[in-house]
């Protein structure tokens, strides 16, 4: 059995990445790439499980790629590509559709949330999306998968699929059982308007989130308007936890100033909200604005982005084809 660690993760190109994606996913991707082999994929086939305007999709694939690069992913270190350009993802997903069980998919809470009250109208793709995710990971025999807590159930399904495949086709250890690297802070970046909800690109008010492409002025304005109250900042964790909006500002503050929450709380205890807000706004402007500018710059050179994806696709395809060939053999396909 191969012991080599390999990281795989995917980000959907559904537009406008924000501070939650940045602190929770992208920054961690960058630090993982320092000492592990990593594959980062723009998962366009996942995006189309809900309808995407084709022109916007194309643009969003490039913009997500630009965001990867702008935050520091290095195409010479990590493989960066878009999912649909390596057709082995779809082929392995089909084989997994035949390994995975209806009963397993019926337990997926994300499908229930996303499909809403009218499940009959959800796409079949949305239903079998977790099988495709398993294919993404296992196609490369990835061992470690950085994901937010909301994807943990999907990752467990990937392990179940790997195990059942290994059993059904009598090839113990063929697929490794991928381990989640649950990113501790991914679920911690909350909406600036409601500290109990995750920061999300689908929340109606743009004031609820800091987008990576926001201008310095917008960042300052949004932090200024972030929900708070008329009391001062509490001096202990217990009271802070009762104020989700204050907790969120402190969490973001501790994350961008690279200190732990306790230390951040010590610094801010008893202060007015305007104090933390102005410090936080400064920090975010200096960290996020350059990223936004770089994304815009890269988006002006689409040929360059396409070339990055093409190179990544070539590298990914070599690994994918090799593994798919072995899978086909195990299954008995000629
Ligand atoms: N489902 C993940 C999400 O919505 C994206 C994703 C697709 C992914 N394939 C993956 C994440 C493989 C990790 C590994 O966030």
Topology diagram in text:
Blueprint: E1 6-11, H1 19-35, E2 37-42, H2 44-47, H3 54-71, E3 79-82, H4 88-97, H5 102-106, H6 109-115, H7 124-138, E4 144-147, H8 152-168, E5 179-182, H9 216-225, H10 237-241, H11 244-256, H12 261-268, H13 273-299, H14 302-331
Parallel strand pairs: 1-2, 2-3, 4-5
Helix pairs in contact: 3-13, 4-7, 4-14, 7-8, 9-13, 11-12, 11-13
The structure holds tryptophan.
| CATH fold node name of the largest domain | Rossmann fold
Strand order of the largest sheet: 1-2-3
Number of strand segments: 5
Globally, the shape reads globular
Poorly predicted regions are none
Largest sheet: 3 strands, parallel
* Total number of helices: 14
- Give the helix proportion (percent range): 55-70%
Mean pLDDT: 95
The CATH architecture of the largest domain: 3-Layer(aba) Sandwich
Which ligands accompany this protein? tryptophan
Give the number of domains: 2
CATH class of the largest domain: Alpha Beta
Distance from first to last alpha carbon: 25 Å
**Topology pattern, helix = H, strand = E:** EHEHHEHHHHEHEHHHHHH
Strand % is: 5-15%
- Give Rg in angstroms: 21 Å
Classified in CATH, the superfamily of the largest domain is HUPs
Which key features would you list for this structure?
single chain, 334 residues, mainly alpha, Rossmann fold, Tyrosyl-Transfer RNA Synthetase, 2 domains, three-stranded parallel β-sheet, two-stranded parallel sheet, 5 strands, binds tryptophan
